[in-house]
Amino acid sequence: MRAPRSALVRIEARAAAWLVAGLAAFLAAPRALAQWPQHFEALTVGPQLNYVEGLVFAPDGTALLLEKPGQVRVMRDGVLQSAPLADMRDEVNNDWDRGLLGIALTPQFVADGSEQSWIYLLYTVSPVPGADNGYNQGQKYSFSRLTRYRVVTQGADWVIDAASRHVLLGNQLADGSVPDCIASVHNSHSNGTVWFGSDGTLLLATGDGAHYDLTDTGGFDAPGFDDWVHPATGKLGPTPAVEDSGALRSQDVRSLAGKVLRLDPTTGLGLASNPFYDGDPASHASRVWALGLRNPFRGTPLPGTGALDPAVGDPGLAILGDVGWNTWEELDFVRRGDNFGWPCREGFNPQSNYQGFQPPTPAFPICSDAPAGTLRAPMLAWHHSNAGLLAPPGLHFDADGQPQGGFNGNCAIGGALPGASAYPTEYASRLFFADYGRKFIRTLAFDAQSGLAGAVYDFGLTTSGVVDLETHPLTGEIWYVELNGQNARVKRLHY
To answer: pLDDT tens digits for 273-296?
Structure first.
């Protein structure tokens, strides 16, 4: 079994031309960011880790760490529990950018096997159990799955109750097809952040599951779809054939890919209060909350927003970092029914590679169609090589508030908001976000009602690329995960 790779190292290293331009811009860019603003420090928590790409906190401050190959580790006061909470490596497809990437805990989580003990895991499924096959190896394709388990305490350890396993999305039928799967037809963009809304509904962000190495309008991966029969196994491909539209499935509410989904956390079904509900809670459209996303790998809900009653249809606001293709990175402010435009738009601009595409038959939405939902521009977008194209313009300042000329990057990681008393007051309502490729953390002041960006402030450079930022529930400090190859570290920003 070949060594797995980091989930984000190659996201933008896709073409020789981009590599040359990006390297030149990197070398020419000013290295002006200080390590941290005065009185801040980054403190390492716990030991060096392997392939950790995310974390979530239990209410008591216990950290649950996601290892991309398929394990969940428990860390208390910097000490790892010796046994993993869950070991799903035989089920998880740890190929390139895919793997176990999303995690959430039921609100008021307690590891006692009760209704408050559920853990939710989002991951790509291996088509050959125990093997990390390439996305099309042996004409056997993957898909992404959402599963939940109860957590129980055995002695001092937290472990999953295997008998409580419940697949919410990604139920594979005997014929090989997976009608409720999240498409993962290439080796990136499969899944990302999972969180609970204020109303107890479950939300998750999914990638488009498409190729990054070409303009993907579908038709490149016939064995990945359920109108194809494998010549050796007799099994169908996993993904519904109606979703063979490449990146354009992000615009199609018949697909769960390239979306924010809002689900009943006990059933995985859609809710009548969702914007595209069609009367059938099991339909894909009924599960969609927002759409038009490419690779919303990390993000955060906004505390203090939303209603308590699921019937109201207001689980609260959220901010997602959507990793771009060859040109732009985005922070997106997520509301009910929003459409962020991918692949017809990227950043604030039309995406020319997809704008003119006309399918041979009108089988799926294209860029000349009226978009589903409400078309929204990002709250912030930065360019891969030209710092001066930061949009909206004029928002960039150093840590002391002096105007700057913009910044660039190539892998958006959004973000987390600190607790009110963790840092000086000017940081209390800012989003801490990062860029994995450029190894920066910056802060964003914004209007929490409109989502409009107010100002972006430099904060500091990290040792390795950041893949997740979270808020500690007791201290309010920002914790983050750095990843360099397979080596990971958890750090906290202390004032």
So the answer is: 999 999 999 999 999 999 999 999
Closest CA to 265 of 63, 61, 122, 59: 122
CA distance 330 to 343: 13
Strand 396-397 to strand 453-461: parallel, antiparallel, or no bridges (unpaired)? parallel
Task: Output the pTM of the full model.
Answer: 0.94
**DSSP of 178-214, one letter per residue?**
-TTPEE--SSS--EEEEEE-TTS-EEEEE-----SSS
449: left (phi over 0), alpha (psi -120 to 50) or beta: alpha
Are the C-beta atoms of 404 and 374 separated by less than 8 Å? no
Helix or strand run (H / E) with residue 487? strand 487-494
113: left (phi over 0), alpha (psi -120 to 50) or beta: left
Note the pLDDT tens digit of each residue in 214-252.
999 999 999 999 999 999 999 999 999 999 999 999 999
C-alpha distances out from residue 304 to 335, 428, 429, 447, 448, Å: 15, 13, 12, 14, 10
State how far the Cα of 343 lies from the Cα of 327, in Å rounded to an integer: 12
